[in-house]
Write a structure and sequence with these properties.
Structural class: alpha+beta
CATH architecture: Alpha-Beta Complex
CATH superfamily: Creatinase/methionine aminopeptidase superfamily
CATH class: Alpha Beta
Number of helices: 4
Shape: globular
Helix content: 25-40%
């Protein structure tokens, strides 16, 4: 069942989403060549707790850390570790979800580490564009399938593939709920969007094949061909006349 949120619930959710966005911005400023992803996790954990919130991924279905860190060929759900050291030329997705006021806010971004190749930079930039074109489909009366159709069309035009094994999701008092939001598909299919719905749009775009596999840790998903993957994510509210990006910091 898809939850329609009240004005009061939406305002509480805005606060959590703003904190998630602020946390991601804060962590991004700390990235440097030679540091471990475990250090980024510690920085995020302390920052979130200082704001009176809780890092949603920590202990979620057994996930052991407070954020996900996914470098290069890691598609999503990478576990921060002392042995994962950032190198010059890496791309790194950081996924942050905060629990504040009993509501979750979820956002991620792929960062450039040091001197990144033109091909990798293009993938990252294009993935952000894919997310934004997906967001642009959101409005009352549209369908969830419209989002994936627009993303898939744009990714294919550049010769990239769209990951099908993971998708966006409804969010609110629960971390993951209905609707599921695939980043591929056909227009005019899926659930109808209604004002008060909140969900994430978070396309994972691969330089090579779309397939993924999960490592023995049970979480880390990587590309089957070892090629780069990038991802961006926002939490979105369906408004009376369009959408609001809840995880966008005020200018």
């Amino acid at each position: 069942m898809i939850e329609i949120k009240s004005a009061q619930e939406i305002e509480l959710m805005r606060e959590s989403c703003r904190l998630a966005a602020a946390t991601l911005e804060y962590i991004g400023r700390k990235i440097r060549v030679g540091m471990s992803t475990a250090e980024l996790d510690r920085i995020a954990h302390e920052y979130i707790l200082e704001q009176g919130a809780y890092p949603s991924p920590l202990n979620y279905r057994g996930f052991p850390k407070s954020i996900c860190t996914s470098p290069n060929e890691v598609v999503c759900h990478g576990i921060p570790a002392e042995e994962v050291i950032l190198r010059d030329g890496d791309i790194l997705n950081i996924d942050v979800t905060t629990l504040l006021n009993e509501f979750h806010g979820d956002t991620n971004r792929t960062f450039l580490v040091g001197d990144v190749s033109a091909k990798a930079r293009k993938l990252v930039e294009y993935t952000h564009e894919c997310m934004m074109i997906g967001i642009a489909q959101v409005r009352p009366g549209a369908h969830i399938g419209d989002i994936g159709a627009a993303i898939q069309q744009k990714a294919r035009a550049a010769g990239y593939s769209v990951v099908r094994d993971f998708c966006g999701h409804g969010i609110g008092r629960m971390f993951h709920t209905e609707p599921q939001v695939p980043h591929y598909g056909r227009r005019d299919t899926g659930d109808e969007m209604l004002p008060g719905m909140t969900f994430t749009i978070e396309p994972m775009i691969n330089m090579g094949r779309a397939g993924t596999r999960v490592l023995d840790d049970g979480w880390t998903a990587v590309t089957v061909d070892g090629k780069l993957s990038a991802q961006f994510e926002h939490t979105i509210l369906v408004t009376e006349d369009g959408y609001e990006i809840l995880t966008l910091l005020d200018e």
